[in-house]
Each structure stands twice: as structure tokens, then as C-alpha cells.
Write a structure and sequence with these properties.
- By secondary structure, this protein is α+β, with helices and mostly antiparallel strands.
- The protein is built from four helices and twelve strands.
- The strands form two sheets. Strands 2, 4, 6, 7, 9, 10 and 12 form a seven-stranded mixed sheet that branches.
- The N and C termini lie far apart (121 Å).
């Protein structure tokens, strides 16, 4: 264990939890940081989901000015009716030390756990009363709906505000969202109605070409006419 990580763990054990507790919330957002309750993707695509901790109006100043020394989150991703995703990567938020051990990723059971520590001399400060905990990268395997649920880790790993030893904070309520996965458009087979329209469109030139055209060779036979429109008679042919 590195020295900064050892010092952080020691502080967590020595600082008693006081009666004053701030209320913080988990927040699920897209790759740009915009809060989201739903995501859309195709099978075969990848998606980045960000998890933040945010302070309420009353706790915005401590989160921005004092910051976090430790944090954690459990993310559940459970598919419905055969829907499935694979969690391919977790990137922890800026300012936190590399988590020891590696983040827990249990794709078959749809669960990932992330525990974070900051340098005790350099807490992670919030921006606009929120701090990025991590980015979870998913790969869509099968179409359907996948439910996302962000909660506190099962091991009780607490996050707290540095600079006020009498305060810690609770996380709640949990944050939820869903991922809607649709079939990939690659190699899609046209619907029967589309095939019928394509067939009609292809026959149109043939139908136009079969119409009667009096100027075509082989049209209706009749008397040959002079250029002035008068019929040619037998005595005319004899005169020639």
C-alpha cells in the first residue's frame, strides 16, 4: 500500500463520525456529463455512463470548498427479456488514487463496485456541487432494456468531507436509469411492403416502354402517303 493510501485509510479510522450528516445523491449522466434517465444504443455499439456524487443546495459549499477524501459506488446493470450488456472498462474520476484492488466487475450478475481514495493532502473538490466518481463503458450484446441502479457499496465504504471532522455524509436515494438496446441496422432485411414498392418501381420503365408509339418502326400498316398527304395512285406510279 502506498503512503498516501495508507494515510487516507488511517484518517478514516481515526476521525469519528459526528452527529452532523450531509445528504448527497448519486447522479447518472451521459458521456458529456448531462444528467440522463435513459440511453439509446444499437447492439454492437459502446456507451459511456458517468456516475457523479452531487450535493444538495445546503451541502453545495462543503462539496465545492472542502471536497472528498474517499468515495464509493455500486452499479447494477440488469437486463430484461434477454437484453444484455458487457461492462468493458471503468475509469475512475480525476483526482482519485488508483483504486486498490481493481474495481470489481461481475458481468454475469450485472454488478460493478468502485471504491475510491484521494490523497489526504489533496482532497477532490467539486465543481457546481458535484464530483465525478467514474465512467463505466458498456458494450451492447442483445436488444432489450437494461436497468441501471447506482447505490452505496455493500461493504459500507463511506465517503466523507475533509476539513470538518465532525461531519460525514449519507448517500441517498439511489440513482436509476435505463439503456434501451435495439437491433443493429447492419444487414437488415427489407420489410415485405418495401420489397413490393421496389418491385413496382422497377417495372415502371417496362410499362412505359410497352405503350403504343406511332413513330416506332413496325407500327400499324397503312397506305403510304405523299409528303403533301395525298394518296399515291397507280397512274402516278406509271408516270414515273
Amino acid at each position: 500500500m502506498s503512503l498516501p493510501r495508507f494515510l487516507t485509510a488511517t484518517i478514516l479510522l481515526l476521525i469519528p463520525a459526528g452527529p452532523a450528516r450531509a445528504n448527497m445523491l448519486y447522479q447518472i449522466a451521459d458521456a458529456s456529463g448531462t444528467p440522463a434517465e435513459g440511453f439509446r444504443m444499437q447492439a454492437g455499439e459502446s456507451l459511456d455512463v458517468r456516475i457523479y456524487v452531487v450535493g444538495t443546495d445546503a451541502d453545495a459549499a462543503p462539496l465545492n470548498d472542502v471536497g472528498l477524501l474517499a468515495a464509493g459506488v455500486d452499479l447494477r446493470f440488469l437486463g430484461e427479456d434477454g437484453a444484455a450488456v458487457e461492462l468493458t472498462k471503468i475509469t475512475f474520476g480525476p483526482g482519485f488514487l488508483p483504486p486498490p484492488p481493481d474495481p470489481v466487475i461481475d458481468t454475469p450478475n450485472g454488478r460493478a463496485s468502485l471504491s475510491l481514495l484521494a490523497d489526504p493532502l489533496s482532497p477532490v473538490l467539486g465543481t457546481n456541487a458535484r464530483i465525478l466518481l467514474g465512467t463505466f463503458t458498456f458494450h451492447a450484446l442483445a436488444p432489450g432494456i437494461v436497468d441501471l441502479v447506482a447505490t452505496s457499496p455493500d461493504d459500507g465504504f463511506d465517503a466523507f468531507l475533509l476539513g470538518d471532522a465532525s461531519r460525514s455524509f449519507n448517500i441517498g436515494p439511489r440513482a436509476t436509469a435505463d439503456i434501451q438496446i435495439r437491433h443493429s441496422d447492419v444487414g437488415a432485411i427489407p420489410e415485405p411492403r418495401s420489397l413490393l414498392l421496389l418491385a413496382i418501381g422497377g417495372m415502371a420503365p417496362l410499362l412505359r416502354g410497352s405503350r403504343y408509339n406511332p413513330h416506332r418502326r413496325g407500327g400499324p400498316r397503312g397506305r403510304r402517303s405523299r409528303h403533301d398527304g395525298s394518296p399515291r395512285h397507280a397512274h402516278d406510279r406509271g408516270a414515273q
